[in-house]
Design goal:
Layout lengths: L3 E2 L3 H19 L6 E6 L4 H17 L2 E6 L6 H13 L5 E4 L9 H5 L13 H8 L8 H12 L8 E5 L6 H10 L3 E5 L7 H4 L4 E4 L17 E4 L3 E2 L5 E2 L4 H5 L4 E2 L6 H21 L22
Parallel strand pairs: 1-11, 2-3, 2-4, 5-6, 5-7, 7-8, 8-11
Antiparallel strand pairs: 9-10
Helix pairs in contact: 1-10, 2-10, 6-7, 6-10
Length: about 300
């Protein structure tokens, strides 16, 4: 038995095409969607990710400004840039890319990103709105997991889902998105005990812990659908996920690849969110309505 491959490439292409088409519509009104990415690290995997965003934006006709402040940037440096971007009318979406330099408080900075420009759901206001079902931009990586499941017609309602990792970037918002779709959700972390106690009986297992090979074939069953969110750069420069793919592929029912899975969909969603933010900001919509797409709104209609 070999697990079904849950590729994200076709889905990512569909989303990029949608972003490109909507961007062209805006250009007819002399509006070009622009995404600003603020970075302050020498982490290899982060730079790989940002380059993938730049390439995707270029192919979709969306402006992308990467502001690299270096690994020794201070909190004040970052705050100043974010405040400028928040008021710059030509910038429609802002990402503060982590990790940040030692001593810099992420929570002190993400609140400087206006919710209407918070296209990756970093501001606590965005997460709060997500939690209560109000319109907000969900973190793109979390949303990409849901989109992949829907694209491959994996049922979610009534299924047991385990999310490994509780970050505010992926784990927590993903749990909210799965709950909103009527899954029974468990979130695992370093103090949850043996991983297999939680994952072996799950229908859907999403691993987003940032540890290469954390999940292997002994942790899953023949009915498990496994989504690998990990993007770990190895010594040879190649990319690996959090799942021991060779081990899991011979046991599980389905597995998303790395690369070519969640990551490709994530970058495409960032572009679509940027276009949506540009449309809302240019329409003169009141700020309290410029919070992004409702959490229940997805790219594909729900299937019966």
């Amino acid at each position: 038995m070999s697990a079904q491959t849950l590729s994200g490439k076709e889905l990512a292409g569909d989303i990029r095409r949608r972003a490109r088409e909507q961007g062209r519509d805006l250009e007819q009104d002399s509006i070009r969607p622009v995404l600003a990415v603020v970075i302050a690290t020498d982490d290899g995997s982060t730079h790989w990710y940002v380059r993938s965003i730049e390439r995707a934006a270029e192919s979709a006709g969306i402006g992308c400004r990467v502001i690299d402040l270096g690994h020794d940037a201070t909190e004040q440096d970052l705050a100043g840039v974010l405040r400028d971007l928040a008021t710059e009318s030509s910038v429609h979406g802002i990402i503060l890319q982590t990790p940040l330099p030692a001593g810099v408080r992420t929570d002190a900075l993400v609140g400087l990103i206006p919710p209407e420009k918070d296209i990756d759901g970093a501001n606590p206001l965005s997460l709060g709105r997500l939690a209560v079902g109000q319109p907000a931009f969900a973190p793109a990586t979390a949303r990409s997991v849901v989109e992949i499941l829907e694209h491959h017609r994996i049922p979610v309602a009534g299924r047991r889902a385990v999310v490994v990792g509780r970050s505010a970037v992926v784990g927590k918002p993903l749990a909210l998105l799965l709950l909103e779709r009527d899954a029974a959700v468990t979130v695992c972390h370093s103090r949850s005990g043996p991983l297999e106690n939680h994952t072996a009986g799950a229908d859907i297992v999403v691993v987003a812990a940032g540890r290469t090979g954390l999940l292997n074939g002994s942790h899953v069953s023949s009915s498990s659908v496994v989504i690998d969110v990990g993007t770990n750069v190895l010594a040879d420069g190649s990319l690996a996920g959090d799942v021991d793919a060779d081990s899991v592929r011979g046991v599980a029912a389905a597995l998303s690849p790395v690369p070519g899975g969640v990551g490709s969909v994530t970058t495409a969603l960032l572009l679509l969110h940027t276009v949506e933010a540009a449309r809302r900001q240019s329409s003169g919509m009141p700020r309290d309505q410029q919070q992004g797409t409702p959490t229940h709104s997805v790219l594909h209609r729900r299937r019966p």
